[in-house]
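hi! just following up on the protien thing from before. the input was this:
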Amino acid sequence: MEAYTGFAQVYDKFMDNVPYDEWAQDIRKILLKYGVSEGILLDLGCGTGNITRRLADCGYDMIGIDISEEMLQIAMEKKYEEDEDIPQASKREDILYLNQDMRDFELYGTVSAVVCTCDSLNYITKEEELLHIFSLVNNYLEAGGIFLFDMNTEYKYKEILGDSVIAENREDCSFIWENYFDEKESINEYQVTIFVEAEEEEEERHNQGRLYEKFSETHYQKAYSIDTVKALLEKAGMEFIGIYEAFLDEPPAETTQRVCFLAREKFQPGKVYQ
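and the predicted 3d structure came back as:
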């Protein structure tokens, strides 16, 4: 499941169109609606910590887990970037980042809520592994704790990404993103090729022209039906609350590209809450 190695250094550059501020505020509204106004939150698949830091700014004690050491290194560097206008910005220094595989993560105790954004769970290409993650989440949630996550839809893989090539060229970096969607297996394979301007002394750059480093990564994501995800949540022991179009307060349509799922820890006799 190795991903986001070379791409990590330019990830935020190419994701600058993602409305992280709006997403974090919408997550905050949902958490408040279900009584999670404070406490420890887990950001599963946190990447460079864009959502993690914003939720810390909302006053939550944050834990971020990601499998990519490179992404976490950037997250660690960025957590000290404080905004003087944000009263809770100092909580960023207390963020705990853990380099773990979400398929087998471990915590020291329970948390009030778990969030997982940016289609991180689509990287889980086996149903049994997704079920195991849901079971782990349920295990580490406090009584009545909330699980909020988004996933790309089958429509997006079939109609938007499938067999397409996306490219973007910028001043100091560029990428080519080639997609292939296997409808039989519901697996989207994409080859990402990144060109990043090398750090060279000015004199060398003047003599040789602009030099670029090339990185290539292959990623795999799986399209899950809403019914499958709902069934797996319930099989893991959670109470399914509902779904909606990602970060919009409305039900998904046939052409929705990203959906948010909301579930809750269901009280289990004999479970020990730490």
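The first strand starts at residue 40 and ends at 44.
The chain has a mean pLDDT of 87.
cheers
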